[in-house]
Q: What sequence folds into this?
């Protein structure tokens, strides 16, 4: 396992990409996951400065792990715009040096999606996966509430329906736990198609609504119940034991306050939990590591 953090953590703060790169190097992260809006902005008016920061990252063994965005697959009327957006994201992904794009599989609970609608969603995701293949990329659906990947059974079914080698899963352990699925059993079942991990935690199941979009994306939204990995209702120790030898990136997805402090504490706790040998896999080991 290689460890990264998400720039969406800093969605409501004025923090430069340079500072995030410096933090990632100093705290021995292996990469940075870029929120789609950030990726577009940094490659636009900040392109030259961003290019210099990417060079610093690459020289020190770090990489952009994934572009995380949202592709509309709701209907044919808007799908042409979705295809254009994906092609733009794919070109950005190549420029950033990453080979993964994250999306959500729709915006409705899987239980509310009729069979013909599922088939249409799957067909559109198959088309998008083919476009990603043209660019040498993987399209990953995140296990997330109110999507076709909101539980293990529906995620497995969706993978079969899309049936494309470039379509996989960004496995968010907390959201599968939220759905009532066992995170370790889910990982075992999905493992061949998992391309990335998201890790976050919550104080109790009663607080899971704190991650609803209207809370997470609102500057004044509640953050009560968001806790570091080690302090939450989901026990991450066995999860870390299961994934620590993986070659995949695991992103810390923190939405609360004091992000630098919490990300550092989470990294330290992961290191201690995994042990010295696993820590060597987590740490950036290229010559010239900062800190």
A:
């Amino acid at each position: 396992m290689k460890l990264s953090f998400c720039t969406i953590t800093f969605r409501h703060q004025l923090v430069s990409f340079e500072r995030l790169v410096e933090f990632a190097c100093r705290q021995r992260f292996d990469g940075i996951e870029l929120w789609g809006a950030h990726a577009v902005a940094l490659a636009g008016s900040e392109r030259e400065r961003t290019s210099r920061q990417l060079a610093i990252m690459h020289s020190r063994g770090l990489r952009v792990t994934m572009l995380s965005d949202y592709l509309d697959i709701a209907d044919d009327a808007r799908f042409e715009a979705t295809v254009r957006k994906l092609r733009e994201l794919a070109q950005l992904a190549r420029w950033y040096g990453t080979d993964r794009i994250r999306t959500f599989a729709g915006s409705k609970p899987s239980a509310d999606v009729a069979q013909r609608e599922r088939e249409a969603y799957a067909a559109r995701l198959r088309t998008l996966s083919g476009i990603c293949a043209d660019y040498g990329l993987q399209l990953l659906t995140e296990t997330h509430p109110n999507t076709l990947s909101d539980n293990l059974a529906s995620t497995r079914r969706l993978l079969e329906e899309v049936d494309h080698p470039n379509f996989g899963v960004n496995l968010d352990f907390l959201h599968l736990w939220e759905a009532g699925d066992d995170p370790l059993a889910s990982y075992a079942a999905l493992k061949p198609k998992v391309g990335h991990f998201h890790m976050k935690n919550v104080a109790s199941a009663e607080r899971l609504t704190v991650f609803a979009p209207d809370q997470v994306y609102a500057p004044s939204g509640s953050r009560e119940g968001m806790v570091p990995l080690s302090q939450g209702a989901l026990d991450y120790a066995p999860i870390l034991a299961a994934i620590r030898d993986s070659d995949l990136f695991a992103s810390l997805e923190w939405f609360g306050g004091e992000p630098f402090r919490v990300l550092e504490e989470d990294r330290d706790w992961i290191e201690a939990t995994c042990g010295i040998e696993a820590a060597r896999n987590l740490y950036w080991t290229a010559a010239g590591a900062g800190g």
